[in-house]
Amino acid sequence: xxxxxxxxxxxxxxxxxxxxxxxxxxxxxxxxxxxxxxxxxxxxxxxxxxxxxxxxxxxxxxxxxxxxxxxxxxxxxxxxxxxxxxxxxxxxxxxxxxxxxxxxxxxxxxxxxx
Amino acid sequence: xxxxxxxxxxxxxxxxxxxxxxxxxxxxxxxxxxxxxxxxxxxxxxxxxxxxxxxxxxxxxxxxxxxxxxxxxxxxxxxxxxxxxxxxxxxxxxxxxxxxxxxxxxxxxx
Lengths: 114, 110
Hints:
heterodimer; A: mainly beta; four-stranded antiparallel β-sheet; 0% helix; B: mainly beta; five-stranded antiparallel β-sheet; globular
């Protein structure tokens, strides 16, 4: 079956602009995770959804970052007033209900803030 | 102290040798441990998970866990050039999110 998909694959924006990154999880997976990976680093947790609600948003760096999952499937990560330090690969992962240990990652969105 | 620590490498081994990758973690409440492989420009791919002390073998891969020493390792036997990648150690401390190390870059040369 289809894996986790993310769009766009690349996004270049200017400092101060607003961006939206989309994640489409594996069908039937109730848990969805957003991570951010900077060059030379491991993925860093941002936020985790169980169904429609954010179960843990402790990794969001500040209030410029927000994520939604209104119907419990597709999720959108929203970044306001982008800064150059936001440049990274944003990874989405999903897992089946009750199996947080099996997270399948999408290909990521490479965000570049000029 | 970082929650999950790995040597960034690169670790260079000849083809056919055993590659040994190491990881330490700080939270004694950690419950699950994972090794992900990440090729350059690609997303992480789960290759091994381990939950209890001891060894777990899957093909050419063996994961080792020592909770008393807070240490996880990955052994790759008969290393191949196609194993060249960054290997990420990850830990679930019971909150359903994964805490990753910075990764160790492995280079297998012919």
